């Protein structure tokens, strides 16, 4: 009996020592393993040298006659959606005397971000959404950005707030995005919106624009998602992660591929639906794809092209010229996911205003 008591005492002591060790390592008052959450390693993509593009991929137009895949026209779909939104806003104005408002925060002078923000504001004007903008210099302090967010949070004529990403390195993205009011988080990047998207039976107030656009592209093209094998390449907070969650919500069996995935090609070869969002031009080659698969290409990378007007052209993650000969449908770059991202931002802003006005 004494032996058992001594053993129990010893075990309790050992357990308490281990707990304390974990507590001091992780700072959490629990007994969780210090490695449970693992390191947040960056996804630096190094295409497989044996399969990567070694020779230039011929330009699409030279091979247009051999194209077999249907083109999923994001520009056209976005136009239809914007026209529906314009009518909806007219109906809202007639009934309430009010219209939705979107506030945009742009920090720094990245040319691509400036273009996206300009396009977002132009799209707002065209459908009847009022837009406000806070433009801050590259070297601005975190407090200035937070002040802009907080003042938009309190402004009743603002129904949507977006902080254009990426932010300059010295700013704490997490802190800034967390400050956006949950009810105005039209980008859907607030952790509570993202958490609710991840959990079964929960409804996020907003779904991030690009992932929502990807699903709309599939649904409006008549692609069945339920029961299909989907591969999402990339696991960013903006696109890869929420897209994988949305596809799961649509009852696909989802595999996420990232820079540490072994046999990415073989895994992708089994997918009925492939969404690629890594920003590596032509990473996904024709032989990665299953015949008849549907491809949504989110990647938009500028690639040198002396023959084009600006000396570069936008290129997707998927080698289009090869893919069109294999898959059943594919989004082009440009003209696929990009225009849908902006259309979905307008949808989220209108949804937010409807909630605020109690208008349906
Ligand atoms: N706060 C956010 N930041 C960023 C987001 C976002 O959704 N919210 N997404 C991207 C950039 N982005 C929107 O902000 C975006 C990217 C591309 C397009 C687009 O229409 N692309 C066109 C081509 C445009 C061109 O010619 O330059 C296309 O693909 O046809 C729209 C929006 C990162 N940051």
Automatic annotation (TrEMBL):
Which is an annotated GO molecular function term of this record?
A: methylenetetrahydrofolate dehydrogenase (NADP+) activity
Q: Assembly and interactions?
A: Homodimer.
Identify its protein family.
Belongs to the tetrahydrofolate dehydrogenase/cyclohydrolase family.
Q: What is the organism field in this record?
A: Nelumbo nucifera
**Functional pathway:** One-carbon metabolism; tetrahydrofolate interconversion
Domain Tetrahydrofolate dehydrogenase/cyclohydrolase catalytic: start-end pairs: 72-187
Q: What does this protein do?
A: Catalyzes the oxidation of 5,10-methylenetetrahydrofolate to 5,10-methenyltetrahydrofolate and then the hydrolysis of 5,10-methenyltetrahydrofolate to 10-formyltetrahydrofolate.
Q: Which residues form the Tetrahydrofolate dehydrogenase/cyclohydrolase NAD(P)-binding domain?
A: 208-356
Keywords from the UniProt entry: Hydrolase, Multifunctional enzyme, NADP, One-carbon metabolism, Oxidoreductase, Photorespiration
Query: Which SUPFAM superfamilies does the entry link to?
Result: Aminoacid dehydrogenase-like, N-terminal domain, NAD(P)-binding Rossmann-fold domains
Could you identify this protein by its name? Bifunctional protein FolD 1, mitochondrial isoform X2
Recorded superkingdom: Eukaryota
This entry carries the following GO cellular component terms, namely: cytoplasm
Q: Which Pfam families match?
A: THF_DHG_CYH, THF_DHG_CYH_C
Which reaction equations make up its catalytic activity? Answer: (6R)-5,10-methylene-5,6,7,8-tetrahydrofolate + NADP(+) = (6R)-5,10-methenyltetrahydrofolate + NADPH; (6R)-5,10-methenyltetrahydrofolate + H2O = (6R)-10-formyltetrahydrofolate + H(+)
Q: Give the UniProt record's GO annotations in the biological process aspect.
A: one-carbon metabolic process; photorespiration
């Amino acid at each position: 009996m004494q032996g058992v008591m001594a053993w129990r005492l010893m075990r309790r002591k050992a357990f308490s020592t281990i707990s304390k060790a974990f507590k001091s390592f992780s700072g959490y008052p629990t007994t969780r393993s210090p490695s449970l959450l693992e390191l947040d390693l960056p996804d630096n993509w190094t295409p497989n040298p044996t399969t990567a593009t070694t020779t230039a991929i011929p330009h699409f137009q030279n091979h247009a006659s051999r194209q077999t895949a249907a083109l999923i026209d994001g520009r056209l779909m976005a136009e239809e959606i914007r026209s529906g939104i314009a009518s909806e806003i007219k109906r809202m104005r007639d009934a309430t005397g009010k219209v939705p408002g979107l506030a945009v925060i742009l920090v720094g002078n990245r040319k691509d971000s400036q273009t996206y923000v300009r396009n977002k504001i132009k799209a707002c004007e065209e459908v009847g959404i009022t837009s406000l903008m806070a433009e801050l210099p590259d070297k601005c302090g975190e407090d200035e950005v937070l002040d802009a967010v907080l003042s938009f949070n309190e402004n009743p004529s603002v129904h949507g707030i977006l902080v254009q990403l990426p932010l300059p390195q010295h700013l704490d993205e997490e802190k800034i995005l967390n400050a956006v009011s949950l009810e105005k988080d039209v980008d859907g990047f607030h952790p509570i919106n993202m958490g609710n998207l991840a959990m079964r039976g929960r409804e996020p107030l907003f779904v991030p624009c690009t992932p929502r656009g990807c699903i709309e592209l599939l649904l409006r093209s008549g692609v069945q998602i339920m029961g299909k094998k989907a591969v999402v390449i990339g696991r960013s907070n903006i696109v890869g992660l929420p897209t994988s969650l949305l596809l799961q919500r649509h009852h696909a069996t989802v595999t996420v591929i990232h820079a540490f995935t072994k046999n990415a090609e073989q895994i992708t070869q089994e997918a009925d639906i492939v969404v690629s969002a890594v920003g590596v031009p032509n990473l996904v080659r024709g032989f990665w794809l299953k015949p008849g698969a549907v491809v949504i290409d989110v990647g938009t990378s500028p690639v040198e092209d002396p023959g084009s007007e600006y000396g570069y052209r936008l290129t997707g993650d998927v080698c289009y010229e090869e893919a069109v000969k294999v898959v059943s449908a594919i989004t082009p770059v440009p003209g696929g996911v990009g225009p849908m991202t902006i259309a979905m931002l307008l949808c989220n802003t209108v949804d937010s205003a409807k909630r605020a006005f109690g208008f349906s």
